[in-house]
Each structure stands twice: as C-alpha cells, then as structure tokens.
Amino acid sequence: MLMQTHEARLAALREELKRRGHDGFIVPISDEHMSEYVGDYAQRLGWLTGFGGSAGFACVTLTHAAIFVDGRYTVQVRQQVDEKLFEYRSVPKDTLAGWLGEVCESGAKIAYDPWLHTWGFVEALEKRVADKGITLVPAAGNPIDAVWADRPAPSPAAALPHDDNHAGRSSAEKRAAVADWLTREGHDAVVIPALDSVAWLLNIRGSDVAHTPVALSYVIAHKDGSADLFIAPEKVTPELARHLGNAVTVRDRAAFEGALTGEFAGKSVALDPDFAVVAIAQGLRSGGARFAFKQDPTILAKAVKNPAEQAGQRDAQARDGAAVSKFLRWLEMTAPSGEVDELAAAARLQAFREEDPGLRDLSFDTISAAAGHAALPHYKVGEDSNIPIPPSSIYLVDSGGQYVGASGSGTTDITRTVWIGPGEPSAEMRDRNTRVLKGHIQLARAVFPQGTCGAQLDVLARQYLWEAGVDYAHGTGHGVGSFLAVHEGPQRIAKPGGGQAGTGQELHAGMILSNEPGYYKPGAFGIRIENLVLVEERAIPAQEGSWLGFETLTFVPLDRKLIARDLLTAEEIAWVDTYHAKVRELLSPRLGGEDLAWLERETQPL
C-alpha cells in the first residue's frame, strides 16, 4: 500500500523499528558513496519528511522525531516539514547526541544503516551517547526501504567513456600514479567509493545522479596498476569495455561486498575516511584484512586540472556565458511586466543553454529567487514556493551547465544578481551589492604564496561587509570538477573551523574554485556575485619563493544598476572595466542582433 502522507510514513517506520527491536533510526541525506547529491532511490529523508534541501538529517525514535539542518535551511525546513511530526533542530548548536540524550532512556538501541555513514561519524556518536546508556546498532537492511513501497530503482543508464583528449591523461596513467602511491604508503589496494573519483580514475561518465555525470559503481585499485570496477552489468556496453581495457576487470556491483570479505585476508587496504562507509570497513575487517584511513589518492590529483581540462573549462565558460547573457537581456525586457515567475525564468534560462548542442545537463538545480526568496542562499523553487518576480525588486539566479564540445568539456557555476525595473534600486541595495562586489574583486585580484589555504583568503571577500556590520553565513568558494561534480573537494574558501571541510587545504595551481561572496536581508532581498577562478602561478618582481593568483574564468556582465560607483576605488573601477572588456571580447562572436547590442551596452566602462 502506498503511503501518501508523511504522517503515515513516519508511523510505518516506527512499526518497522518495533518489529526489529530498535528504539530509533538515523536518516541521513546520503547514498552508499557518501555523495552530496544522490539518486532518487536514495532520497530517504525527502520521502520520510518532505525536506528538499541538500544537507541535513533526521532521527526517529518510537516516541519522538527531529530534523537537523544548518542555517542555510532554517526557513526551508519550516516550509516543507510538518512541525507536528518533527522537531526543528539547528546545527551545530544542536547535536544528535544531545537530542538522543534528551529523548531516550538508558538501554535504548538506535539503529543506523552502515552503508550510509562513515566510520568516524558512528565512532564519534557512540562515544557521545555511551554515558547515557544508549548504544548504536547497524541495521540489517534499511528499515525505510522496507516500508517505501514505490521506492525508485537505481538508474539503469549505461556508463560512457570520457575522451582521453578531454581528460588530459589516460586512465592507465592515473592508475599508475595510484599504484605508486600505494607502494609508497605500504598498501596492497585502495577502495574508491566516491562516484566522481571512480569517474575521474577510469575516464568514464554516466547519468545516474541528476546533474552530476557519474555512474553508480565502486573501484578497488591495486598496487600493480590494475583495478576492479564493480558496476551493474546492464550499464556496461562493448564500447565501455574496450575503453577500460584488459587492466580493468569489470565485475557485478552486487559482488562488491563479497570481494571485501573474501579477497583481502592478510592484506593492507586504504580507505578514505570521508567516503568509505562503515559497511566497507566492517567487510574488510571480517575478511581478515587490515585497513587504514587515508585520503583517496585521486582526490587531490582530480582537483588539480591539467592543461586539457583547463582548456575545456574555458570553452564551457564561453558557451555558458553566451546563454546567460541572452537570458539576462530577456529578463530585462520581460520581467518588469510582473508576468514572469521564478519557475518560468529558470525554464527560460535552461532553454537558452539548450540552444548549445554541447550542453549535456545542468550542473545543479537552478536557484531562481525573487525578492525575499533571494535572501535564502540555497532556495529551491518548486510549484509550492513559486512566485512572480515582482517589478522594482532584486532577482538572484545561481545556475550552471555541464558541457562537452570539440575543444573539451567543463562544468560551470555562476550567480548574477540583477535589478528588475521599473525604477531604481534603493541606496541600501546598491550599498550591499557594491560591498559584495568589492570583496569579490579583492579575492579575484589576490596574490598569495604557495602554501596558502582557503581559510587564509576568506576575509578578503568579507572585509567590506564587515565594515558595515554585516556578513554572510556560507563559504566563499568551493572546488569545481571537470565535467564532474559542481562541488568538488578538497579545496575550499571559507572561515576556518565550524565544520567547513577543506578550509585548511593548500591551494595549488590548476585548482578551480568559485568566488561567491553575498549578502542576505531576511524577507527582503539577497545578493550574490559568483564567478569561477583558476589558481595559477604568478611572477612578481624580486619575489621570494613561489606565488599564486587567480585567473577569472566566468564572463557575464555585472548589473551596473546595482553598482554604487562612488564606493569603488580607482583600482576596483579599473577591474570592473577590464572584466567587462573581456566579457565583450569573448562573447561578442557568440551573440548577434539585440543580444549583441545589449552586451555592448552593459559592458561599457563605468
């Protein structure tokens, strides 16, 4: 029987927990690869609660239930999740351990799916609840799956070869580098569960996760340079088999657990602590293997883009810039009527992107946010939340695409904030937008010594907002993949600490990051200016040591109506004028007619 209400689903889960002898169950947004974005089959938190955000978790006991989200989703969770069913808890202030201590009696057994949590998460939680007499138990099969009657099946789509010319290195070269790492580190093999790492290592792509071109699979790479790929047989085409070659053994994904328990007795295996779930470690241990937690050796290598990947990214940015520019002109012409809503704007932007035959997908769900919705940094428009874009207001659009072309492939991510007429933006709006722009410029112009990490640069983007006594609650920059995940580690630009993974990662030439400071006035408006940047080597007169800077990759006009010129320095004005000149140079050959006239007008010197 299908359960249409979240109340019925919660009740069914509790009955299943009683049947199994569990007192509670932890429900993350996760899949067995610890992906940020997961396939429909793994959207268990959304099915149970109605929450549509990309970060958060719930815990259900026989008598209580709570959903935990961070500050990005404080408003959204209240719009989507029934407070009669789930308490709202805010992290990091509220902790799962603390909540369990409040609602559970001593002796309670809280279940978790060992395929959806890392060893470190479970170990830390066990220590924190032990003094309350609470124990964690791995569930034999996910109890939500037992009651989710119409749960979608995993995607059956075929995996595809990724052109070595686009990748810049063959899979054999990459596997050889992993083999060298295993030899240096003293391991026989490394388990690679992260989907984008599998895709990068084997030069394959797929369509199993919305907007991220990956195929559901695992890899075990060995110190002789060979690898086992565990993937559903229906996803393997003759073309893929030829691409992989004899050194990659293709095995059924269903055989992965058995390989862990039966093939590594007495051997040493490396596991990434952020991506290898409890079940993988337990499988190796039960089979007599030794394992050690170390960062997946593909992660840093994947983050440092080679010349072919950099060229593909520049090509993708030019394609994307033309589409976004067409959209901004269309928006300027049509939105002041008040007849364009958020969903229609997102659809029109997608249509402009789809005019390019190289578009394979969006890189994430478009954030199309009008008026007060723009004050929600991770707003996701749907039928229930969709509103018309009000005349005389700010509109924010954060979007991107996945592109493949003759010159390479790439992943884009851009945010533009624009004024929708008629009339003029308020002095406050112009002030806040210009402070965001000033921070964006300072980060874009930064020159820093080799060894610098993202946390050391973050204040450059915030300083002018801080001068006005305001700030933003998200990171300033995330890594971006090469025709892969739009959020890619290990690099990040954000405040140090606070659970911000990657802020201590040294930046290397070849890394791509976003530069996206913002400002958000609850219920009124939001501002974010985002370009992608490439870390590059810089030569400085009389320099001591090695120095780095950023090459801006994204080229789309900034809204001049929201810029308070008198708040900019001469150097900042020169940066904007130079940036707009590059926008005009790059995009003019790709636009014509009224679109070209609009571009030329919007890129005139300040």
Automatic annotation (TrEMBL):
InterPro entries: Creatin/AminoP/Spt16_N (IPR029149), Creatinase/aminopeptidase-like (IPR036005), Creatinase_N (IPR000587), Pept_M24 (IPR000994), Pept_M24B (IPR033740), Peptidase_M24_C (IPR032416), X-Pro_aminopeptidase_P (IPR050422)
One Gene Ontology CC term in the entry: cytoplasm
Keywords: Aminopeptidase, Hydrolase, Metal-binding, Protease
Domain (Peptidase M24 C-terminal): residue spans on this chain: 547-606
Record keyword Glycoprotein present: no
Superkingdom field: Bacteria
Family, per entry: Belongs to the peptidase M24B family.
Name used for this protein in its record: X-Pro aminopeptidase
Source organism phylogeny: Bacteria, Pseudomonadati, Pseudomonadota, Alphaproteobacteria, Sphingomonadales
